[in-house]
Amino acid sequence: MSFSAYILKSEKADVYYIGSTEDVLKRLEVHNSPKARWTKKYQPWVLEYHEEFETRSEAVKRERFLKSLKGVKRKLDKIKSGEL
Question: Which pTM does this prediction carry?
Answer without folding.
Answer: 0.82
